[in-house]
Design goal:
- By secondary structure, the protein is α/β, with parallel strands linked by helices.
- 54% of the residues lie in helices and 13% in strands.
- Strands 3-2-4-1-5-6-7-8 form an eight-stranded mixed β-sheet, with helices on both faces.
- Helix 3 packs antiparallel against helix 4.
- The two termini are 17 Å apart.
- The site of guanosine-5'-diphosphate (GDP) has 18 residues, from helix 6.
Length: 316
């Protein structure tokens, strides 16, 4: 178990190495430049956090928290702020005990997001993960606008070794979900994961389609626990935050976020911004392209991977 944990942390830490390098260089120069905690130090620290995509709102909460602690604990050495910062960000990122309730219930997971963010890949990885933990999983290929989307999902279904219900290009996505629900019920599946089309440029259509899918699920499978996850591409930084905002307007009942491609970016701090600004928990992160590269979001490990060297992170 301990080895498995270390392996997971190593994967996370190497996935986030670009972000860590960026944050570490900002912090190192800040901590070497200042020998006392004054308003210039605070200003620069604030700027560093914002530059690292942590976002204005989260940064201001983190700074308030830090200032309170510095004064309460009578800290004078700037380098001691590093630990306090880590604690403060960790607190901001807690996802709550019920975040993964769907994994333990008979559930339907709707996956939404614009094209190219890593939606289909995440569906495949999530299916693999759940299957590995002993769950029976069925996939619904409800993105029928691109033939390639169905084929790609079929490939992931093979990889994860789970069945997939799909249809022809242009078929009604709600009809596919209807068939998939029937199959999930007939096979007593634990989790039905529905990949949907992501055409944010046409909000009205998107809303109508997701509404239709939702109605089918509510009518045909009222006993199922519902989870709606929006997939966002971490490499797009502030744009990911903007997409989250737009999706929340269209689909108010989003229950969580899958933040992908954190391995290819220095913008991993966006996870903190999204969670704090949107109030929607980041539940999974993608740190690579293989089936094992989707991790449950662990705020503690995430913050350690961002701020500490791998050795420091493993030992605390
Ligand atoms: P969709 O259009 O939203 O369904 O996006 P896809 O699932 O087709 O993914 C688009 C591209 O992003 C593919 O080349 C994936 O391999 C890649 N991708 C998805 N998630 C990750 C990730 O966490 N890390 C990396 N490096 N690439 C990813």
């Amino acid at each position: 178990m301990e080895t498995e944990k270390k392996g997971l942390f190593h994967r996370l830490a190497s996935g986030l190495s670009k972000t860590r390098k960026s944050i570490a260089s900002g912090f190192d120069s800040l901590f070497s430049l200042y020998s006392e905690i004054d308003s210039d130090f605070y200003d620069e620290l604030e700027e560093t956090l914002i530059m690292d995509d942590i976002g204005v709102k989260a940064t201001s909460q983190i700074m308030d928290d830090l200032k309170k602690k510095v004064s309460a604990q009578k800290i004078t050495d700037p380098s001691e702020c590093r630990k306090l910062l880590i604690e403060s960000i960790r607190t901001q990122m807690q996802v709550g005990e019920t975040a993964y309730e769907f994994e333990n219930r008979t559930s339907v997971v709707l996956i939404i997001g614009v094209n190219g963010v890593g939606k289909t890949t995440s569906v495949g990885k999530l299916a693999g993960k759940l299957k590995d933990s002993g769950k029976t999983v069925i996939l619904a290929a409800a993105d029928t606008y691109r033939a390639a989307a169905g084929e790609q999902l079929a490939e992931w279904a093979r990889r994860a070794d789970v069945p997939m219900i799909g249809g022809q290009e242009g078929a009604d996505p709600a009809a596919i979900v209807y068939d998939a629900v029937a199959s999930a019920k007939a096979h007593h599946a634990d989790v039905l994961i529905c990949d949907t089309a992501g055409r944010l440029h046409n909000k009205k259509n998107l809303m109508q389609e997701l509404h239709k899918i939702s109605t089918v699920i509510e009518r045909e499978y009222p006993e199922a626990y519902r989870e709606t996850l929006v997939v966002l591409d971490g490499t797009t930084g502030q744009n990911a935050l903007e997409q989250a905002r737009q999706f929340k307007e269209t689909v108010p009942d989003i229950t969580g976020i899958i933040l992908t491609k954190l391995d290819g970016t220095a913008k991993g701090g966006i996870a903190v911004a999204i969670q704090s600004e949107m109030g929607i928990p980041v539940k999974y992160i993608g740190v690579g392209e293989s089936i094992d590269d989707l991790q449950k979001f662990d705020p503690d490990a995430f913050v350690r991977a961002l701020f500490l060297t791998e050795e420091e992170g493993e030992s605390c």
